[in-house]
Automatic annotation (TrEMBL):
SUPFAM superfamilies assigned to the protein according to its UniProt record, in alphabetical order: F1F0 ATP synthase subunit A
GO molecular function, one term: proton-transporting ATP synthase activity, rotational mechanism
Record protein name field: ATP synthase subunit a
GO biological process, one term: proton motive force-driven plasma membrane ATP synthesis
Family statement: Belongs to the ATPase A chain family.
Protein topology in the membrane: Multi-pass membrane protein
Keywords, comma-separated and alphabetical: ATP synthesis, Cell membrane, CF(0), Hydrogen ion transport, Ion transport, Membrane, Transmembrane, Transmembrane helix, Transport
Coiled-coil region(s): none
Principal location listed in the UniProt entry: membrane
Subcellular localization: Cell membrane; Membrane
Organism: Aquipseudomonas ullengensis
Transmembrane annotation, as ranges: 42-63, 103-121, 154-171, 192-212, 232-254, 261-283
Length: 289
């Protein structure tokens, strides 16, 4: 592989493996960042999709295995871990969600574990999996990112799914009239009908911004924290690859220290996404009429 500058190294590690329509009209993988950008909206980040599905399957298989081996006698380590995790999530739902919906607890568990697993990929050395993928494909310049939550497409996709549930349950519980009333008759109200009608545009603007802020805050909070963590690991890797013994030793120490601290960020971000989802869905189930 040709010698790569620090800037080129960073840019390469921040580029997704993108599949879409090439400038010539054919469909294929982008070979440069410019090609990936030119593919537009209908491009697919294959690495993000692949790792998301793979980690989702790991979650399903692990919990399925624990369920099949569950025993009322002496439980194994996996069963203990799953039971503690389920009790933790169930307690969080009972403390936060004030409606009645059997979907919320399984949804919260899925969100927490799936996002945690995706975040956990950030602890894998930044060059390990990309170099393995390059060796397998024979392409030394292959773009390959392994942390799905550092891709805003993934975090926005999850946030929009939650947003869809918020809208669905808001209409189901409150009715279409109640939902529209929340958007147009709050926060400013008046007993005078004429004044209330005049306030509808202002109320709608304020409530619509509040509504839209929910999925955007969910997506950008998770993306921003994980992207920053990934970038720091890449910067440490640049330092580690300098060839200087002192700097390399410092790089190992920094990488270890940041990894230990980053475990807290990984867990916290999964927990925050889960808790905000529960809170937003609880608000959607509140009928003030």
């Amino acid at each position: 592989m040709a010698e790569q500058t620090a800037s080129g190294y960073i840019q390469h590690h921040l580029q997704n493996l993108t599949f879409g329509q090439l400038p010539g009209g054919d469909w294929g993988f982008a070979h440069t960042a410019a090609e990936a950008k030119a593919m537009g909206f209908w491009a697919f980040h294959v690495d993000t999709l692949g790792w998301s599905v793979f980690l989702g399957l790991i979650f399903i298989l692990l919990f399925r295995s624990a369920a099949k081996r569950a025993t009322s006698g002496q439980p194994g380590g996996l069963q203990n871990f799953v039971e503690v995790l389920i009790e933790f999530v169930d307690g969080s739902v009972k403390d936060t969600f004030h409606g009645r919906n059997n979907l919320i607890a399984p949804l919260a568990l899925t969100i927490f574990v799936w996002i945690f697993l995706m975040n956990l990929m950030d602890l894998v050395p930044v060059d390990f999996l990309p170099m393995a993928a390059a060796a397998i494909t024979g392409n030394d310049h292959l773009f390959f990112r392994v942390v799905p939550t550092t891709d805003p497409n993934a975090t926005l996709g999850m946030a929009l799914a939650v947003f869809g549930l918020i809208i669905f349950y808001s209409i189901k519980v409150k009715g279409i009239g109640g939902f529209l009333g929340e958007l147009t008759l709050h926060p400013f109200g008046s007993k005078n009908i004429a004044v209330q009608i005049l306030l509808i545009p202002v109320n709608f603007l304020l409530e619509f911004v509040t509504l839209i802020a929910k999925p955007i805050s969910l997506a950008l909070r998770l993306f921003g924290n994980m992207y920053a963590g990934e970038l720091i690991f890449i910067l440490i890797a640049v330092m580690f690859g300098s060839g200087m013994f002192l700097l390399s030793t410092l790089g190992v120490a920094l990488n270890w220290a940041w990894a230990v601290f980053h475990i807290l960020i990984i867990t916290l971000q999964a927990f925050i996404f889960m808790m905000l989802t529960i809170v937003y869905l609880s608000m959607a189930h509140e009928d003030n009429h």
